[in-house]
UniProtKB/TrEMBL annotation:
It comes from Mytilus galloprovincialis (Mediterranean mussel). One of its GO terms (biological process) is positive regulation of transcription initiation by RNA polymerase II. Belongs to the transcriptional coactivator PC4 family. One of its GO terms (cellular component) is nucleus. This is PARP-type domain-containing protein.
Length: 287
């Protein structure tokens, strides 16, 4: 028997004969009112549409989602009216909210060694992305993974070794990343244009929010693409250059970045694109 894939979220505006109570405000939901829900085991937890975005624990897993990815996460999306569909697309495409990061905290811890005179133990399934970052195709039992990871040079040695800093994508996530390359490049061009405009206006603009902490309410100027429920590709300006951040997010009390991810500089992202065909050959060879 073919296994039916269960989507994590559900949306509906169809009338129902059964009373449905909102898990957020605890009041009844009108039978013909737009409602969003989360599937939990064999039942669903329903919310008023507005209550979902304010009270649902998993609300941020539906943030930063664009295009066809929304239909892959939300059951019933294709069946709601166009006006409701447009409303959901607008709300879901906005960036997730995050809490304030503790002062001095960092996602990445510096490690020993330098980039100078470092060689990699390269093989047919490992691809150099420059500056101590490599992409490796691996097979664990029957599962294939594309791992993008930082390397370091141990003291007294010249051969670089992999670190724990990076991310491992399964085949489905890698395919989604490959399909979104053109959109990511468009986002990079848009961000570069915005960055140049900000540099021109920097001396003219009187910033009223000079003392405001960036990132307190949302990801500032991030363009997000979804690879899975928790994994996102972010495009944003870091200093004077635009970077591509492939990362897993965790939701405890707030939707926040985890240490599991990699931040690619422009030359590294370019190298990854140039090696896409070679990476796919390695996946086919190991499958």
């Amino acid at each position: 028997m073919k296994r039916v894939k269960t989507l994590p979220f559900i949306v509906s505006s169809q009338p129902t004969k059964v009373d449905i109570r909102c898990c957020g405000c605890k009041s009844l939901i009108n039978s013909d009112q737009l409602r969003l829900g989360v599937r939990e085991y064999k039942s669903s937890s329903w919310f008023h549409y507005v209550c979902f975005w304010t009270n649902c624990y998993y609300r941020n897993h539906l943030r930063g989602v664009v295009g066809n990815t929304l239909a892959e996460l939300v059951d019933g999306f294709s069946g709601i009216p166009p006006s409701d569909k447009s409303r959901l697309l607008t709300d879901a495409s906005s960036a997730p909210s995050i809490g304030r990061r503790k002062s001095g905290s960092k996602l990445e811890i510096p490690y020993e060694g330098s980039e100078a005179d470092g060689d990699y133990e390269l093989d047919d399934n490992t691809f150099d992305l420059t500056n101590l970052v490599c992409c490796t195709v691996t097979k664990v039992q029957t599962n294939l993974h594309v791992s993008i990871r930082k390397y370091f040079v141990p003291r007294g040695r010249t051969c670089a070794k992999p670190t724990k800093y990076g991310i491992s994508l399964n085949c489905e996530q890698w395919n989604k990343l490959e399909l979104q390359v053109d959109d990511i490049n468009s986002a990079i061009a848009t961000t570069q244009k915005t960055l140049k405009e900000k540099e021109k206006e920097k001396d003219k603009k009187d910033c009223k929010d000079k003392n405001k902490l960036p990132g307190k309410e949302e990801f500032p100027d991030w363009i997000l693409f979804s690879l899975s429920w928790k994994r996102r590709v972010g495009v944003f300006a870091s200093g004077e250059e635009v970077v591509v951040d492939i990362r897993e997010f965790s939701e405890e009390k707030t939707f926040s970045e985890s240490d599991r991810g990699i931040r690619l500089k422009p030359d590294q992202w370019k190298q990854l694109q140039e090696n896409i065909n070679n990476i796919n050959k390695s996946l086919r060879k190991l499958s």
